[in-house]
């Protein structure tokens, strides 16, 4: 091929979580007994009424292009959901775009607000794809390291100290992947104060909104004083409704910004799949979210099992996640040189696949992420393998 400057894609690496999933599939194809706790995919089936609605749409011939913003009925349903559950007022005609995945929603939202050289504050640990998205768009991700000793708490001082004349936005995720933390009112107000003071856009990823434990309410930044009118909210159906393969999300924000965002949708994917949108309509029609609550109750049982099991292992400290379906235990007491080394050792010695915390930023270097979106049997077996192997391992970097 003709020599030239490297393509934009050369500036980023592969997704660590997708790469792990590929490796798991290769190992399983070779007959290796692998227990995969690295992925972020619900192991439940998509609710039957959602499947039925999509099948009916297919049989009815609803298989053609839709408006780029999404079918009007779905945007109206999303607007009603946003008002009811989040306190967000959104005009379905101008403020909402339905996208093929929440990941694409995050990407086009960023494309609508940043340009080359613009900086985006990224409190970390943070999901693995945020920084590469910013880089692909010519922006600069600015890591705002959160202290694990303080339970990864966000403060206005931390955010403000990272602001420069090039700062354009703050991107954050609650409930958080990978920590499982949920924004407190104090943290949400801190974000709002900094955004208002420096005139920043806020990008709020709320994909795990319904997967939370205990009584703490989910706080939507777009509904906070100081953030209204400057926040783009990303959400979707993959996690809460076990619809990962359906690839459907949405983004909502001020009409003036969404006029720019929709251009990216039009020139990349055009629109989300028509029949999938009809499945989402059925999902939102059940305002009680009974199927979601049933899944969350099962996740809660698994969460307790995994946290208790990990905390039995000497050298491991695991906090209770407040939302999502991940734990991020501190493994510094095991004596490995890095999270990467720990994860590699665990795969080799136990067949349990975890994600190195370093994939989510330097503040998680001494952590690994495990997903409890797996059956109780798999989690029980994984904990037994981990506990047996790690108790037998002599601590220290030189151990093998």
From TrEMBL:
Which residues belong to any copy of the Aminotransferase class I/classII large domain? 33-385
Q: Name one GO molecular function term.
A: transaminase activity
Q: Which PROSITE patterns match?
A: AA_TRANSFER_CLASS_1
Keywords for this protein = Aminotransferase, Pyridoxal phosphate, Transferase
Query: Broadest EC class?
Result: transferase
Gene3D superfamilies annotated for this entry?
Aspartate Aminotransferase, domain 1, Type I PLP-dependent aspartate aminotransferase-like (Major domain)
Q: What is its EC number?
A: 2.6.1.-
What cofactor does this protein call for? pyridoxal 5'-phosphate
Q: Which family does it belong to?
A: Belongs to the class-I pyridoxal-phosphate-dependent aminotransferase family.
Q: Per its record, how is this protein called by name?
A: Aminotransferase
- This chain's source organism reads Streptomyces sindenensis
